Amino acid sequence: MPPKERNIAMMGYRSVGKSSLSIQFVEGQFVDSYDPTIENTFTKITRVNSTEYEVKLVDTAGQDEYSIFPAQYSMDFHGYVLVYSITSQKSFEVIQIIYEKLLDVMGKAYVPVVLVGNKTDLHQERAVSTEDGRKLAESWKAQFLETSAKQNESVADIFHLLLMQIEKENGNTKEQSSCIIS
Ligand SMILES: Nc1nc2c(ncn2[C@@H]2O[C@H](COP(=O)(O)OP(=O)(O)OP(=O)(O)O)[C@@H](O)[C@H]2O)c(=O)[nH]1
């Protein structure tokens, strides 16, 4: 069977680590420099349980509270990774605005989303509590993870959870049990 194609967009405020998470997932490395993204697309074959997926990952340009939701990201996407940095309250506020705009532009009450609080290695600079992140995700009925792109902590789990969430949305629940990522 050919892999299932899944298109996923990474969204969030500037400099929260969208590119770093994408590169860590796809290439298994962390580059400690900052180069603002315009748009990048990555492809990776990944397996969740016995199903193979071809993930097309679109790393978008950072957005702020004034950005209009880019129309090109409202079509042909199966799910969204919404990223903030645990060191930035502003990025946490912006992600809520991005989520509202996403639902609005999709005209749906539910869209497969994983909320990600990145940069957990910078715990001394933490500005957003785990509890606040979890509560926000609960209010969205979304999955929630805290990650470190730098230390490769929970990075693959983001995509694993989202792929499962997308399966559920498509009515395929058999893959909700135990999971293996490769
Ligand atoms: N300590 C630490 N730094 C990180 C982490 N993830 C990203 N960074 C750093 O944060 C800065 C911004 O990372 P990017 O991945 O470029 O962020 P982005 O969200 O893609 O930024 P835009 O392209 O502007 O939207 C870079 O200097 C990264 O090295 C992390 O988990 N821990």
From TrEMBL:
Which InterPro entries does the record match to this protein?
Answer: P-loop_NTPase, Small_GTP-bd, Small_GTPase, Small_GTPase_Ras-type
Query: What is one Pfam family matched by this protein?
Result: Ras
Instruction: State the organism's lineage.
Output: Eukaryota, Metazoa, Ecdysozoa, Arthropoda, Hexapoda
Q: How does it sit in the membrane?
A: Lipid-anchor
Q: Which organism is it from?
A: Corethrella appendiculata
**Keyword Acetylation assigned:** no
Q: What is this protein called?
A: Putative ras protein enriched in brain like 1
Q: What is one process in the GO biological process aspect for this record?
A: signal transduction
Report whether Cell cycle shows up as a keyword of the record: no
For this protein, what is any one GO molecular function term? GTPase activity
Key words, A-Z: GTP-binding, Hydrolase, Lipoprotein, Magnesium, Membrane, Metal-binding, Methylation, Nucleotide-binding, Prenylation
Location(s) in or outside the cell: Endoplasmic reticulum membrane
Q: List the PANTHER family.
A: RAS, DI-RAS, AND RHEB FAMILY MEMBERS OF SMALL GTPASE SUPERFAMILY
Please give the SUPFAM superfamilies that the UniProt record associates with this protein. Answer: P-loop containing nucleoside triphosphate hydrolases
Family to which this protein belongs: Belongs to the small GTPase superfamily. Rheb family.
Q: Which PROSITE patterns match?
A: RAB, RAS, RHO
